[in-house]
Amino acid sequence: MDKELIAPLKDKRVVVVSGGWSSEREISLLSGRNVFEALRRQGVEAVSFDLASPDDLPKLLKEKPDVIFIALHGKAGEDGSFQGFAEVAGIPYTGSGVEASAVGMDKWVSKWIFARNDIPTPRFIPIPGDADYVPAAQKAAAEFGFPVIVKPRFEGSSVGVHIVHEELALLEQTRRVQAEFGDVLLEEFISGMTGTAGILGDKAMPLLELVPKTQEFYDYQAKYTKGATQFICPARMDPEQTRLTQELALRAFRSIGARHFGRVDFMLAENSQPYLLEVNTIPGLTDVSDLPAEAEVVGISYDELIVRITLMAIGER
Ligand SMILES: Nc1ncnc2c1ncn2[C@@H]1O[C@H](COP(=O)(O)OP(=O)(O)O)[C@@H](O)[C@H]1O
Ligand SMILES: [Mg+2]
What we know:
By secondary structure, the protein is α+β, with helices and mostly antiparallel strands. The protein has 3 domains: 3-95 and 303-313, 3-Layer(aba) Sandwich (Rossmann fold); 104-120 and 191-281, ATP-grasp fold, B domain (D-amino Acid Aminotransferase, Chain A, domain 1), CATH 3.30.470.20; 124-188, Dna Ligase, domain 1. It is built from 12 helices and 13 strands. It has helices at 3-6, 25-41, 57-62, 81-89, 98-105, 107-116, 133-144, 167-181, 220-224, 239-255, 290-297, 302-313; strands at residues 13-19, 45-51, 67-70, 124-127, 148-152, 162-164, 184-188, 192-200, 203-204, 208-212, 229-232, 261-269, 274-280. A hairpin with a 2-residue loop joins strand 8 and strand 9 (203-204). The site of adenosine-5'-diphosphate has 19 residues, from strand 5, strand 7, strand 12 and strand 13.
């Protein structure tokens, strides 16, 4: 890697915060360790910090970070709350700010913003946690037909995402997801390819195609069981489809006000129309995660990716 690239980080103390207490704690610790090791390999003064509970926050301040590299996923880490803490403490941090992080975690609001900006997203019906789900489920069945996708408003890693094929299952699954997670959405099913578009700065990375081998869709098992999914990068799409999807992904990323890096999830329908599902403001950052794999295809090594993200936090890129 170009030595000059890391020069602005020479006198900076970078604290890599990972762990957290969301359902994604384990994967976050893995992301954090990989990020920390990359910074160290490049000669940056980095510290690894496991934020295991709110009681650790004073200890984090005692580390006197010049920059915080946020490698947290899910609630309290990716949803704007930790970002708010860093803002209040006046410490520069990597990734999206408070508002974009909150919107990125919110599947209702992000889809409303996509729709307002003519970014195609599957049709959906929002159901508040305290509302009667029966009329909403009937409306989804009538308007979208089957299958229907049931998902929580605020989750990740496909937690709580279900595909249902008939009315009874739709009612039952909606009831369950609402009871467990509160606010839910019912979404039109898009048959086709599951893909992701990594974003680094102002560029979309090559698209990654995900083919679950045994699961019906890209669910939790498919995501976290070794060998359960085939990864194809660049995705098997023609240049025009690819260009259009990358452009939509960048627009979606910007539409919610995200910055530095992220990953946009999409479905490519059989008629070649891309539909955007969500923006992840802190996607997995292990050396085998989607965004690092995509960056690698255009010659950006894992270490360079991490250094470039860190530089963005101090306004150097
Ligand atoms: N409307 C849909 N049609 C078809 N598949 C979907 C739809 N919504 C979600 N999926 C599948 O479920 C996965 C997870 O959904 P996503 O909206 O990205 O939620 P999460 O935040 O849990 O990752 C997607 O990658 C996709 O494979
Ligand atoms: Mg997703």
